[in-house]
Amino acid sequence: MTTLEFVVAAAVLLCVSGVPALMLPARSLLGQRTTTVLVLTGSIMGLLGSVPALVGASAAGGLRLPWFLPQGQGAIGIDALSAFFLVLIFVVPALGSIYGLEYWKQGEHSGNGRKLGLFYGILAGSMALVVVARNGFLFMIVWEVMAMAAFFAATAEDDNPEVRNAGWVYLIATHVGTLCLLAMFALWKSASGSFQFELAPAMPQAVAGIIFVLALVGFGFKAGIMPLHVWLPGAHANAPSHVSAVMSGVMLKMGVYGIIRMTALLPLPSTWWGSTTLIVGAVTGLAGIAFAISQNDIKRMLAYSSIENIGIIMMGIGLALLGRAMGRVDWMLLGMGGALLHVWNHGLFKSLLFLNAGAIIHAQGTREIDRMGGLARSLPLLAALFAVGAVAISALPPLNGFVSEWLIYLGLFGTLGLDGGPGFPVAATAAVFLAMIGSLAVATFVKLLGTVFLGSPRRSGPDAEHRGHALSVMMTGPMIALAITCLAIGLVPALFIPAVERAAYGWMPATASGQALLVLAPVRWLGLAGVGLVALIAMMVLVSRIMLRGKNVRRGPTWDCGYARPSARMQYTGSSLGQSIVGLFSVLLRPRTAPPLISGAMPTATAFESQVPDTVLDKAVVPVFSFLGLQLPRIRFMQQGKLNLYLLYIVVITALLFIFGSMGVRP
Amino acid sequence: MIETSIHIVLLLVFPPLMLGVINKTKAFFAGRKGVPLLQAYYDIGKLLRKSLVISTTTTWIFWAGPIVSLASVLAAGLLLPLGPFNAPLSFVGDMILFAYLFGLSRFFTTAAALDTGSAFEGMGAAREVTFALLSEPALFFALLVLAKDSGSLSLNAMLHGPAAGISASLIAPFVLIAIGLFIIMLAEGCRIPVDDPNTHLELTMIHEVMVLDHSGPLLGLVLYGAAMKLFELGSMVLHLAVPFQTSMAWLNWILLLVELVGLSVAVGVIESIMARLRMRHVPSLLIGALLLCGSGFILLVR
Fold first, then answer.
1. pLDDT digit string, tens, across residues A557-579
2. Among residues A106, A120, A556, A514, which one has the least CA distance to residue A332?
3. Do B104 and A391 touch (CB under 8 A)?
């Protein structure tokens, strides 16, 4: 079989992985295991197919499909760019499926276990098909399958109104995005002559620009760029954790893939494409992380942080587009390389964190971090894994998040025009935004780590204690695997850079060549510095052990400035930790607080409440939709439910089209 | 080789002396005799020999705080050129690693503070992450200016100034980012007017309050790391404030020491003649630093 056939077979296997379980009883462990085995088999097959295409062992392949639809020809293909995304698609869902064996036992979730298994597999398989589709028509079909599968997987607990509500918002948002994509492909067809994904012939700049904007908006809904992100926090928070991991770690990246693929096919861009994308990226990143720190629901925090990371990826793409417009291969390579590596990195550490969040929620029975605390002592392994994910996502050395952001930084600094070539110094200010995003990410993940794992438990009771012990290797194993990949990319980045470079060159115009990512960005040095840092820390730990030998290490209560009776409720909560930052961003975040009512000389017990709802959803989307909900029933008279009336509509429309056509107006 | 050795020795040995000079200056202004110049060394030495008390609520993160923090500050020190000499470790893009190593240090310091479960230490952690949010972008504006004027992406060349010497058009941006970096140094080095290292009123502190529960050797590491951070940011400011050098290597080392002592005196003078800002006014100062560095960048690329 060729690599492409491997990938297609893997995708089909993933899509049908949930089918055998449907024929077995709802509580059947065998059914769930069969599903997982099929997902794993499919994923390994897929990796066998996609890795060779990424390391260059096999030539890029293409395949024409027997096609029954009227438009063009069904085509699939694999190149380094597709293979790069395929690796993520075949790694994360497989690990999530193993995790699901313990996290979402069919025996305990007999009502929705089989349904979840089915749509989880379809989601993974359809994503693989999205990145190999080479025809707009086929692309839209598998894109819709993916969107619907994600809907059913995310709303597994559809007996909960909150879940249904989040799913509903997602469904509307994804279809508004699809609408933009339909318009984009229609325009693409009329400009390039076919639906095939082939390098576009020359087309007017204005048309190319409109296609680009439609792609940015349409795919932006899926990727979750601000302000099109409205569906994202709710859907991620309410989905089962391994589905959140796949949605956030992989499915958002399909939007990124779409933007990358379309900008690769379109003719030479103008500079405004790049600067727009850069601004969109900076705004998305900053607003995303500002919302993240203001939340109290662990999964909403992680979801907003995904928006932030999409912003960082968009900044890389924006830089690459600028480079494409100005003929700077180094910007293209650093921007696209950084964006692509960040796609991988975010997929890895965010799924690590979402899987971790699932285990936390299992142990604590709530998603509210201000009711947690002190988990690190009952679940030390979970805490260590979370710390790895938190350091990685805060883009701190020596882990993987830093490597990809470093590439983007280098490219952004390069826009100063240091080598005497053309520059675009305004773009360099994006580096300052990235720095601000980075320090906010540190604050956000210190808040999460500190509130959930450190200090003492904010709730007491046997309930909170004994639930903590049930952590099987099915749940920790996938997390350990993900943490190891984060360490590997961080410490030995030079191993992964060639694959990134091949994928980035796959995006560039064929004329661009002659530069090497390893030369532009000496990641070997970075890896060396990372290893050195780890060695330094290890050495200091060793020295401090030796120094403390024979010394009296006493344990006592926290000193707390001598306060005699500290209690767990007196600890700094996550909300208070983020409060001053929320204050700085209050223009954007619009926090809602209900101050405590204090009256009289001897005030009685009172309460304080604060929350930060999603500004875009609350202030823009909901008002518009409720207005439409009131106004649109007025045209309901057109919907009479009578067949003859509908036939009349068709006749009228056809007649109108004839008239317009004869007047010379052509689509 | 000799340069590298001197660099490492200076990095390891000199920082506590800066604290001594600052304290002597403050004592001079107050008309006191003050503690010995080498008091910080005695303190750190004494702390390292002591035994320690650890809170029962803490985990390994509490230990990681001082250790990872010192390790990352030390690693940052190896990337930073001192005076006219080159850093021991230098590569394209090392300035970003330099800045992010401070981030790593902050991550573990604040996490260790939260590990104690004390409200005071939580307050300190909250302030630390909030103020970093403003000082970090300012630092990056300064780095952009330095990259643009030197045409390089490595701290060595960036801090050694443009090869052709400083032209008139560079003076204004340089002055602006020098002031901005000086403010960042005061903030990150926990000095007045942002933080007061001497106060014992926990409600008003940033850095000191985060390490309330660290005792013995761990506190020693914390003090040492903080001094080293001040030393590094101070050296960075000196590159801009005193961009001169002689042709003799040994004289340059001596000049560098004199400059560092002079900088410490300046910090001491500021501490003597200024009061600590109220906590809610600190962001204004840091936004000021951000605007100074940002204006420097705009003046340069306009």
1. 888 777 777 788 888 898 989 98
2. A514
3. yes
CB under 8 A, 24+ apart: contacts of A208-211: A208/A266, A208/A267, A208/A269, A209/A270, A209/A272, A209/A273, A211/A184, A211/A187, A211/A262, A211/A266
- Nearest CB to A540 within list B67, B137, B151: B67
- Span B127-145, pLDDT tens digits: 999 999 999 999 999 999 9
Phi/psi for B200 (5° steps) reads -120, 15
CA angle (B17 as vertex; B85, B209 as ends), nearest 5: 110
Q: Where are the domains of chain A?
A: 615-662
Chain-centre distance for alpha carbon A20: 30
B151 in contact with A, Cβ within 8 Å: yes
Of A445, A454, A577, Cβ closest to residue B126: A577
Kindly report the number of other CB atoms within 10 A of residue B51's CB atom: 13
| Helices H / strands E in chain A, number of each | 28, 5
Which tokens in the block code for residue B222?
């914390």
* Number of domains observed in the structure of chain B: 1
User: What DSSP line would sit under A187-223, residue for residue?
Assistant: HHHHHHSSSB-S------HHHHHHHHHHHHHHHHHHH
B52 touches chain A (CB under 8 A): yes
Q: A525 contacts in B (CB within 8 Å)?
A: 91-92, 94
How far apart are alpha carbons A586 and B162 in whole angstroms? 41
Domain containing B192 equals 2-301
Helix (H) or strand (E) holding A554: strand A553-556
| Model confidence pLDDT, tens digit, residues B63-103 | 999 999 999 999 999 999 998 888 999 999 999 999 999 99
Give residues with Cβ within 8 angstroms of A566, minimum separation 6.
A557, A558, A560, B117, B118
Residues in chain A: 667
**Where does residue A554 rank: exposed (0-12), middle (13-18), buried (19+ CB within 10 A)?**
exposed
- CB within 8 Å: A409 and B213: no
Under an 8 A CB cutoff, do B51 and A552 touch? yes
**What does residue A460 show for φ and ψ, rounded to 5 degrees?**
-105, 175
Sign of torsion, CA A519 B72 A476 A117?
negative
Of the candidates B92, B97, B115, the beta carbon closest to that of A455 is on B115
Q: Which residue has the higher pLDDT, A550 or B214?
A: B214
Please give the Cα distance from A333 to A595 (Å, whole number). Answer: 52
* A649 class by beta-carbon count within 10 Å (0-12 exposed, 13-18 middle, 19+ buried): exposed
Alpha helices in A56-160 (DSSP H): 80-103, 113-132, 136-154
The phi, psi pair for A482, rounded to 5°, reads -65, -40
Q: ω into residue B15 within 30 of 0, thus cis?
A: no
From B230, B240, B283, select the one nearest B145 (Cα to Cα): B240
Task: Look over chain A and give the mean of its residue pLDDT values, rounded to a whole number.
Answer: 90
Q: Going by C-beta distance under 8 Å and a sequence separation of 6 or more, which residues neighbour residue A549?
A: none
Which residue is associated with the tokens 């390490």?
Answer: B211
**A642 and B CB contact within 8 Å:** no
Q: Is A395 exposed, middle or buried (0-12, 13-18, 19+ CB in 10 A)?
A: buried
Distance CA(A27)–CA(A599), nearest Å, equals 56
Does the beta carbon of A564 lie under 8 angstroms from any beta carbon of chain B?
Answer: no
Q: What is the pLDDT of residue A460?
A: 65
